[in-house]
Amino acid sequence: MTDDSLLLFHSTTPSKTQNVMKNLDLPMWLSLIRNIDVSESDLQGVIANYLFINMYEDTYKFFIEETQYEGSKFKPSISQRKYIKNSILEGRIMDAIDRINQIDSNILKENNNLLFVLMLYRLVDIITSGDLSAAVKFAKENVSTCIKKDPNLLSKLEEAMSLLAFQDLKSPEALEIIKRIQKPDEISVLVDNSLIAYYNLDPKPILENIVKETLWVESQLESKPNSYSLKLHDVSRCGFKLTPNT
């Protein structure tokens, strides 16, 4: 084995299989890369995954029709995810909750924190509408069940209920509390990631992870002096070139 032998170790997440390449010199490593057989089905799966995760619905449907890809059937559907996302962004939290329960009633039952975030958002809506008795009733019947499962959430409920003491809900202090609780952009992403994860998919597209791992390998090779390394000089085409390390 030459002095250019490489020891690469990388783990994307604790739950993923760790990829280890031990004592492979550069020519051997390049040869192994060239001889890897990537099936058409694998490539189609990466593209389908990218389109699905990013909710490119029309393109995804066209791609599936054109390629006749028969890999994993991703769930929930893009149209369902879009409906839920738009409902949250438009403040229609109960519509979002209803649609999530239609997909699978266990999603929110098994994700207490997610349910709490949605219920707290709705509670603030009721408070700002001026119906204080309805707000208290909603807190007791819906939000309190989340507190029973996780008492650490109590402080956030107390913060929301403190809005009842404000005579002017448009005061800077009240608006700051509302802003901390009602974050539609963040919540819509949280909900979508939770939906995808429930069906055992990574919220990050496979293609993004491939590029990240490629860049990581590049950085490891570059760190070895007096040898040649692979250089990813064009991410858009995954173009590699050999460059000498100094």
Automatic annotation (TrEMBL):
- Domain named CTLH is located at 77-134
- InterPro entries given for it? CRA_dom (IPR013144), CTLH/CRA (IPR024964), CTLH_C (IPR006595), Ubq-SigPath_Reg (IPR050618)
Q: Where are the transmembrane segments?
A: none
Query: SMART domains given for it?
Result: CRA, CTLH
Q: Please give the Pfam families that the UniProt record associates with this protein.
A: CTLH
Q: What is this protein called?
A: CTLH domain-containing protein
Record organism: Theileria orientalis strain Shintoku
State the taxonomy lineage: Eukaryota, Sar, Alveolata, Apicomplexa, Aconoidasida
